[in-house]
Amino acid sequence: MKTNKKLAVAFTGPSNSGKTTLIIKVSIALKKEGYNVAIVKHDPKDKAIFDQEGKDSYKFAQTGANVAVISSKRTTIFNQQPSDITEVINKLGDFDFLLVEGLKTLPLPRICIQRDNINQDYFSVSDTIATDNSIDRSLFPQQMQIIDLNDTNQIVSWIKSNAKEV
């Protein structure tokens, strides 16, 4: 199932709209099809917690040093300076699909998740809207393609047709 390309798509939308849940579903679906998947999440407020207080890696990171945790199953790097997306992509190694949560300024095909309320702030940076029955679809701009937030197969199909090589 290899694409022989590194393809990327981004997800955007208001907080608690379901971006993370959708990315997890899409990642699982793509992995079941035999694709290698990588995920990048933007943390614009720098509030993500990567380790538990009191653990050695947490203590090391608190010194301000760059920290790598290596085990027989994974390597985790805590880098104390920002990286651009190209550096991150290079560090991710081999993948077929990169799923990006956030980073609205990246020029990637973008799915906007809208649930419960319409937030027009995301329309200008989005290529399609994924929504459920909580919003009347006729309220979205007519030029925007609408896909079913609960139909993972439809979303994966959109991604395969629209993802951009990175």
List strands and helices in order, with pairings:
Layout: E1 7-12, H1 19-32, E2 37-41, H2 56-62, E3 67-70, E4 75-78, H3 85-92, E5 97-101, E6 110-114, E7 128-131, E8 145-148, H4 152-162, E9 164-165
Parallel strand pairs: 1-5, 1-6, 2-5, 6-7, 7-8
Antiparallel strand pairs: 1-9, 3-4
Task: Characterise this structure.
The protein is an alpha/beta fold and 166 residues long. It has a single domain (7-48, 82-165), classed as Rossmann fold (3-Layer(aba) Sandwich). Helices cover 24% and strands 23% of the residues. The chain is built from 4 helices and 9 strands; from the N terminus they run E-H-E-H-E-E-H-E-E-E-E-H-E. It has helices at residues 19-32, 56-62, 85-92, 152-162; strands at residues 7-12, 37-41, 67-70, 75-78, 97-101, 110-114, 128-131, 145-148, 164-165. Strands 1, 2, 5, 6, 7, 8 and 9 form a 7-stranded mixed β-sheet that branches. It has a two-stranded antiparallel sheet with strand order 3-4. A hairpin with a 4-residue loop joins strand 3 and strand 4. It is globular. 22% of the residues are buried. The model has no long low-confidence stretch (mean pLDDT 86).
Pick out its properties.
alpha/beta; 166 residues; two-stranded antiparallel ribbon; 4 helices; globular; 7-stranded mixed sheet; single chain; 24% helix; Rossmann fold; 9 strands
